[in-house]
Amino acid sequence: FGTNNGSLIVLDMPSGIELVNMSFGSLWGWGQEPTVAVGNTDNDPGREILFSTKGGLYCIDYETKRVQWNSVGADGSQLTLGTMVLVDPDGDGVDDIVFRNHKRYYRLDNEGKIVHNVSLEVFEDPPHWVDDYLGWPCRLIVDDLDGDGDTEVFISDCGSSMIPEIYKVGHHVWIINLETGVMEYSKEWNNTIFWSDPMLFSHNGSKYVAIGLASYGEGNDTIIIDLDDMSYEMVDVYNREDTSLTFRWISQIPSDNDTILLFGSYNCYAIAWSFQDRKLIWVSPGGTGRANVESPLFVCDIDNDEKYEVLLPVGPVHVLDGRTGELEKRLMINGPNYHGERTTIGDFDGDGFMEICQGLHFWQQETYNIIIIDTDVIVYAIEVPSDGDSMILYASIDNEVPILLRNMTEERLPSNIELFMSNDPCNTFGEFQLFPGNGSHGTTMDSLIIISTYTIENTDEGTFLNLTVIPDWNFSHEGMNDLSVGFTSAMGTPYLTIFKDLFVVERDLELIGDIIISHLEEVLQDGDWLLPSEPLHVSGLDVVYEGTESLHPHRDAFTLDVFDGSVWANLSFTEGEPLEMDLRSPDVDGGFEIVVRIYQVPLGEHGLGRANFTLKVDGTGPHVVDFFPRDSTWFCEPRIPFAILINDEGSGVDPLSIEYCMVRDLNATDRLWQHVTPDETTEVELGLRAQSEYSFSEGSTYILWRFTDHLGNKGSIDHVVNIDLQGIYFHDFSPLGWVATRAVDVTVSVSDRGGSGVNPMSLEYSYSHTDLFSFSEWHTAGVLGDDDRFKIYKKYLGVEGSSNLIRFRGRDNAGNEAISSSIYTVYIDTLPPEISFVDIVNGSIQDPSLKQVLINVTDESSGLSEIVMGSILDVEANEEIGFTLGSIKGSDSPSLFEFIWNRDTGPELNIMVKWWDNANNIAEASIHFFLDQPPVIIDVSPVNGSSFINGTAVNFSVDFNEPNGEEVSIVWLLDGSVVLSTEAIFTNSSIPLGEHHVLVRVEDGRFEVVESFEISIIAGPDVGGPPPDDPGYVTDDNVDFIGWLIVLLIISGLIITVIVLLRRKKNPRIDP
After folding, report:
1. Which of 439-443, 749-753, 976-980 is least confident?
2. Which of 12, 226, 296, 424 could serve as 249's disulfide partner, Cβ 3.0–4.6 Å?
3. What share of the chain has pLDDT > 70, as a percent?
């Protein structure tokens, strides 16, 4: 802090040790208070102190206590008598300085060089007093005020004095862009005086500034400026008819659903006001202070109860509830009356609680003292954390009972804590005293519950007293018990909490666990089988307190009673010894039960829980329920299955013990035993089935079986297998190839090579239309034949393709069964091949040189056969012409074939082809087309050698024929190069004098024909008279000649028209 005599002082908190004391010259005078800021102006790990005095602005390195630089204002003005804030606009960790004195705004860089120097004297008639004094400098606000992304500085002043000259100043606002130094806004309110620092707050996304006004008993007491549009509102916050307040301090109480502003006045009032609802929330008079309030109201959680308090520094610091304004505590300051004060708060000693630091000016003693007030929680709480509704303490063992002194710290721990234990009706059975200072404790009366020890644990929640409590076995009360905890806090406040129904004492023991019975280190399951008189071992049990799973009593507290199926035995165990015992199984078959229960020695009674385990004794081997095949059964195939069905009413058949061997003579001694594999055994309803398969020799073979149960008791059986390989068989299946009908006559012969003959009633068939997995049920077959040889006949209704499968089965008269060794296929194709001509269509006109036609022939089922027929007919000659038909060499398509003929033909051809598939289906296709012919010129006009008088109209025409009726193009050429026309008929009167060669050409796109002739253009006759070059001279003879010429032209036109009409009738394609 800075002093009025120009000294900079730094004190350690809370020890009060002076760390810095530097003098910069006297500042004593009106309003000459120094300004201090702390930051980093050189980007080193240490901090710098910015100190504004009458001599300028000093930057002092805190580590070295040396002045780094000193700066003065522009035009000799001083960087003092103002307010200062440090900013880091570019985020590089190095601070710039923003400073405002009575009449100018400065921004300095970290080396003290002036970046911006802006005059605040922008109003028309500023007051002239105290060196052009505009008003008392107030706290600067640096923020993005208007949401444009730029940072601005909000500057205001206040009157802060009752002196008339000063009273009329202090009602200005300036906004300056931090980056550019441009003043963006300024305004003067002439009808009021600002009385507080500005306070920036946000509401519903908009930013506002609130400033207290000097109301002096009437009018509004606050101005609120909307920074979005710089509109403002004068508000009477206190709004009482009897009086009004002048607010010197404004801050904010955090709230989730409202914007609550906190106002403080010189005369010790604190007011909470809802900006959202525009109404008072609470008003606190604050009591009578020793002097006016000269520090802002602080909003903080001073007692760590997660709720905000308001600190009102008026003599005793008043602690108000931030929600209601109610007084929670007064923090007293002892000493004489003081004149002025400055207050701040912080956790200076790191104990988690706020300390209040006040600088007090004692006028009469001419001293300035700094006082630190320690704080405590306003209310302690005593709690006993518990997972359930009540705690359970267990007899004779250590029980942990935690007691939480919420908000208690190690420094504030009381010296004596008293505990009382009782139960209804008001029966106190334990009184204890804890002395946390040295960790000792004592008791004031004998009790069936003792405290063996306790520990102290400090946490963020408070201080835990972790008690270790041991109830006696003789604690017989089964109901709820109470605990009372009391102490007196370090601040002298007594606390007592009674925990009703806190705990019960449990002394019942319970036998738990899954009993484990083992035989020769093999663990048995409940209901397992044993041989008679086998040794057994019992384990897996545990003894715990009732309701727990792992809380054990001491071993001397119980014994175990064991029943081994015949007698009870009582067993005791030493501490640490496992709860295990040895038994034996009975001597006779049948089940028996092992029972274990607990006996509580101190109580003389049985405890809870009982363990039961059932075992069975088996001394008898397995027996055979059934076997296959029977001894009288004969088989016609060598490879057949064989099986036995075994059962055991005791421990069950052991599937791994089953063996068999095969012999032709029961007296043979060289027997080869073979184990049945697990895949060859199956559990069924009547027991265990063992089944295998083998290729037997013809005749009788004996199968010998042997097996045991799971305990080794033995069993055996033999049976015989008979093979007759001369059974029936199926042969000569028909049809073998493709057929062209879905109703197929199927036959197969059935014979018996020398056995008892075919049994015709046993013959059956089964079929599938898809695959081997979809055969139908077996059906009785129709049979033809005699005793030795039969034939099965079936009208089979199949499907298209090769997926028609059929099989047969039957028996001989001796009962030998047989099934067809082959699955027969019926091939059905009812669809003929598909034939198409490639790149040619009916009625088309083709190139006259065409000597080949391609065809595409496919068949998806039985395939194409080699049977094919074809013909090529010359329609004009009405005769067939020779051709060759075959596949195209080198083609990737096996279905592509070509017709080739080598002789010339007429203009019109007809091709026909027939093709058979392998099922004898026939496909037929034909095509009719034309070969292109050139056009023919019949006549041209005028005739060769014709002469015409110059200037007369010459009529040209051509008569032609297009055999295929195609479109043609016509061109008339004069002397080989001049195009006369592209029409069949036209007239031209502009051919020059002389001999000329005329050619006409007719084209149809593939062919062109021409015709040519010679004509002459001559001059007209000379009749006499004036010279021919005299256009004005006309005689009667000239007139007669012209008249006759006109008559001749008309007659020629009529003749040509008649000729044209006749030609159009002959050939309609001529364009008129």
Report:
1. 749-753
2. 296
3. 87
CA atoms within 13 A on the CB side of 652: 13
Please give the distance of CA 809 from its chain centroid, rounded to a whole number.
Answer: 62
Q: Concatenated DSSP letters for 982-1007?
A: SSSEEEE--PPSEEEEEEEEEE-SS-
Judgement on whether residues 496 and 389 belong to the same structural domain of the protein: yes
Mean pLDDT value of segment 272-284: 92
Please name the residues in contact with 425: beta carbons below 8 A apart, sequence gap of 6 or more: none
**Tokens 């078959």 label which residue?**
589
Q: What is the pLDDT of residue 337?
A: 60
Torsion region of 1017: left, alpha or beta (phi above 0 gives left; psi -120 to 50 gives alpha): beta
1000: its two tokens = 């006409």
End-to-end CA distance of the chain: 122
Type of residue found at 48: E
Token output for 508: 């019942």
Of residues 928 and 758, more confidence is placed in 928
DSSP 472-497: -TT----S-EEEEEEEE-TTS-EEEE
Do 54 and 6 form a contact (C-beta atoms < 8 A)? yes
Which pLDDT does position 691 carry in this prediction? 94
pLDDT digits (tens, 9 = 90+) for 210-254: 999 886 556 788 999 999 999 999 998 888 776 777 888 899 999
662-to-113, 646, 674, 699, 708 alpha-carbon distances in Å: 116, 19, 9, 13, 19
Whether residue 14 has a cis bond before it, omega within 30° of 0:
yes
User: How many alpha carbons fall within 13 Å on the CB side of residue 1031?
Assistant: 0
Residue numbers of the domain that contains 659: 629-723
Q: Say which DSSP state 556 is in.
A: G
Residue 472 lies in a domain: yes
Least confident span in 334-343, 742-751, 905-914: 334-343
Q: What is the pLDDT of residue 162?
A: 52
Task: Classify the C-alpha dihedral 321-322-326-332 as positive or negative.
Answer: positive
User: pLDDT tens digits, residue range 834-860?
Assistant: 999 998 999 888 888 888 899 999 988
Query: How far is it, in rounded angstroms, from Cα 436 to Cα 376?
Result: 19
What does the block give as tokens for 695? 């290729």
C-alpha to C-alpha distance for 406 and 385, rounded to whole angstroms: 11
Answer positive or negative: Cα dihedral of 93, 67, 113, 55. Answer: positive
Assess if residue 623 is contained within a domain: no
- Look at residue 1007 and tell me whether its pLDDT is greater than 70: yes
Residue of 1012, 1019, 1020 whose CA lies nearest to 942: 1012
Mean pLDDT of the region 753-760: 69
**d(C-alpha 42, C-alpha 561), whole Å:** 85
3-class secondary structure, 621: coil
Is 831:923 a contact under the CB 8 Å cutoff? no
Enclosing H/E stretch for 1051: helix 1036-1066
Count of the separate structural domains present in the chain: 6
Instruction: Enter the tokens of residue 574.
Output: 């030493």
- Give me the mean pLDDT over the 579-605 stretch: 88
Say yes or no: 899 and 960 in one domain.
no
Mean pLDDT of the chain, nearest integer:
84
At 450 the three-state DSSP class reads strand
Whole-Å CA distances, 966 to 570, 933, 935, 969: 127, 10, 9, 10
Bond into 1028 cis (ω within 30): no
Q: Among residues 930, 965, 992, which one ends one of the domains?
A: 930
CATH of the domain at 915: 2.60.40.1220
d(CA 374, CA 372): 6
Please check whether residue 1060 is in contact with residue 986, taking contact to mean a CB–CB distance below 8 angstroms.
no
Beta strands in 515-574 (DSSP E): 516-519, 522-524, 529-530, 535-539, 542-545, 558-563, 568-571
Q: Is residue 613 part of a domain?
A: yes
